[in-house]
Amino acid sequence: MTHQFPALSSGQKQELQEIALRIVAPGKGILAADESVGSMAKRLKQIGVENTEENRRQYRQILFRADDRINSCIGGVIFFHETLYQHADDGTPFVKMIKDRGIPVGIKVDKGVVPLAGTNGESTTQGLDGLSERCAQYKKDGANFAKWRCVFKISETTPSKLSIEENANVLARYSSICQQHGIVPIVEPEILSDGDHDLRRCQYVTEKVLAALYKAMSDHHVYLEGTLLKPNMATPGHSCPTKYSAEEVAMATVTALRRTVPPAVTGVTFLSGGQSEEEASVHLNAINNCSLVKPWALTFSYGRALQVSALKTWRGHKENESAATEQFIKRAEVNGLACQGKYTGGEDSESDQIYVANHAY
Amino acid sequence: MPHAFPFLTPDQKKELSDIALKIVAKGKGILAADESTGSVAKRFQSINAENTEENRRLYRQLLFTADERAGPCIGGVIFFHETLYQKTDAGKTFPEHVKSRGWVVGIKVDKGVVPLAGTNGETTTQGLDGLYERCAQYKKDGCDFAKWRCVLKITSTTPSRLAIMENCNVLARYASICQMHGIVPIVEPEILPDGDHDLKRTQYVTEKVLAAMYKALSDHHVYLEGTLLKPNMVTAGHSCSHKYTHQDIAMATVTALRRTVPPAVPGITFLSGGQSEEEASINLNVMNQCPLHRPWALTFSYGRALQASALKAWGGKPENGKAAQEEFIKRALANSLACQGKYVASGDSTAAGESLFVANHAY
């Protein structure tokens, strides 16, 4: 505890911080296109498309073929392992397509959740074995950042102390390993929105989880300036009877982050969870308009909230590809505005701002 | 862990937050006038003044009655218990007098350091017994904030995990109790500058201590918006052979704070430790010019660095009162400018300050 054995040289630190800053540059956010084969099964089933490797390739191609309009709103793309080694119809590797437009490539490196015995259905996430070697290879193959997702749920008895400590620890270990290979780790401690808990409860749990996360990051000597955080927004549970405004969601979210996320963290890239495309944009916009001082970039790392319309438009038909790409570009541009607080579409543009004094949170 | 049992109402939170913001309002900092009787003994000895209760009263009165130039420079004053119940010559209690100038009244509530058995000379701080009742009384007697000091030292074996954990825990307990009584807790985890360690080492230890500090505050459900932090600046040890610039110190300090102190904390009020008056002002000034984004106020909570010259000028003699006050006002004004990054030290062009900063990734 008393002596420092520096994990990174100045040059390594600089590289990590520059990558992180590029990803969350003003007006930019992340396209999370890293759905596993299992997740893609669900998405494709909904539009009646068979879950084959070729279909997955064609679908990602729709996104990656978007024109230059996305260059100013997409700061990074997260890939799934399979996708990292796929090509466009003309043989161009997907990685090259993205990198050539100056967009950093990221890779999902965790290996899914596993149960924590003795808990009320809680989990941790595996994937540390051989992670160092995998990171070295991914870096060679073009990846500059990575993502690892842990999951928490809110119930009468959860998240438990064990779940919080274990998941925070595994996220910190993953981060430490990534940084050794010049890869910026995005840490994702997702608290699910399943349940009927209210906004306050979610805010409270978010504060406890994030406090534990940053203590673990400190204990593992992670260089915070070379990391990004991918949290949930503070929202009520799906079955909560109370309705909250976007401003309330924004205030609760920003308050929770202000109480736990050190200013050194370069950016916060929210997950969209179960939110609709519009909801996710409106909330992000309200967050960026929150009057509290926010020393980190606050932007998006959206999967479904960037892709739902594109998927629905495509339905697996070649003739719908351009239209599908347009849908994606539209959401990308909207979120590019939302992460600057400049999105004027959506229901909140008409209603008066409902200011809630921050000391109530 | 999954349930919140709120113990502060929105009004209580607002009261705490308002007090904290008032103390660290623009251009303001804290006068730490809470030297214990033992500490005052040392100060008075150096000026050949007798350490009597009356002399202590007279001395503090000089500071508290300094003219209106001091007004906008001071946000709060930390008292020692005895001083809280002393009066001005005109018969007004010191708290009443200080409050009427718009300065917030604070009280030192810890009861000093005690050894941690089995460690290499490390300590924790006592004072939790009956603190709940004492806080209720102090609030009635005019106090709106409190201070508690813990001490850590750097050697090849310290600070140990136990020292860090124990001191952070006791600071969080103290903070929790204060808030229940509408008193803003200032948490002071001082890492002493004794030793020959370099700047990097202090920065590292400061980062570890502060990370543990804020984890403990979270565990104890402390309302961060209603607290203040009183840390050491990140400097090399006193006997370190390498000399560092003010920019090095500022960058190392701000980097350490950015990595550990959540933005919800409204203000950071540095202790001056063994620094001279001028050094403490210059360092504070350069810190406020640092190009890294700082979401909290960065200001002073100085004892010696506000009083050393005043004490000397006074020398224990009533006829020197005005001269002593002039010295105090001079330092108050200097630090008021420094906490805004506007201090120009005599014979020094701090306009060049910002350009001397080295890119932060080296820290």
TrEMBL record, chain A:
Pfam families, sorted: Glycolytic
Presence of the UniProt keyword Isomerase in the record: no
CDD domains, alphabetized: FBP_aldolase_I_a (cd00948)
Record-linked Gene3D superfamilies: Aldolase class I
Alphabetized PANTHER family for the sequence: FRUCTOSE-BISPHOSPHATE ALDOLASE (PTHR11627)
This protein's UniProt keywords: Glycolysis, Lyase, Schiff base
EC number per UniProt: 4.1.2.13
Protein family: Belongs to the class I fructose-bisphosphate aldolase family.
GO molecular function, one term: fructose-bisphosphate aldolase activity
Top-level class of the enzyme under EC nomenclature: lyase
Keyword rRNA processing on entry: no
Entry protein name: Fructose-bisphosphate aldolase
Catalysed reaction equations from the record: beta-D-fructose 1,6-bisphosphate = D-glyceraldehyde 3-phosphate + dihydroxyacetone phosphate
Pathway per the UniProt entry: Carbohydrate degradation; glycolysis; D-glyceraldehyde 3-phosphate and glycerone phosphate from D-glucose: step 4/4
GO biological process, any: glycolytic process
TrEMBL record, chain B:
GO terms classed as biological process: glycolytic process
Pathway: Carbohydrate degradation; glycolysis; D-glyceraldehyde 3-phosphate and glycerone phosphate from D-glucose: step 4/4
Catalyses which reaction(s): beta-D-fructose 1,6-bisphosphate = D-glyceraldehyde 3-phosphate + dihydroxyacetone phosphate
Membrane in keyword set: no
A matching Pfam family: Glycolytic
InterPro entries to which the protein is assigned, alphabetical: Aldolase_I_AS, Aldolase_TIM, FBA_I
Keywords assigned by UniProt, alphabetized: Glycolysis, Lyase, Schiff base
PROSITE patterns according to UniProt: ALDOLASE_CLASS_I
EC number: 4.1.2.13
Domain of life assignment: Eukaryota
GO molecular function annotations of the record: fructose-bisphosphate aldolase activity
Family classification: Belongs to the class I fructose-bisphosphate aldolase family.
Protein name from the UniProt record: Fructose-bisphosphate aldolase
Species annotation: Hucho hucho
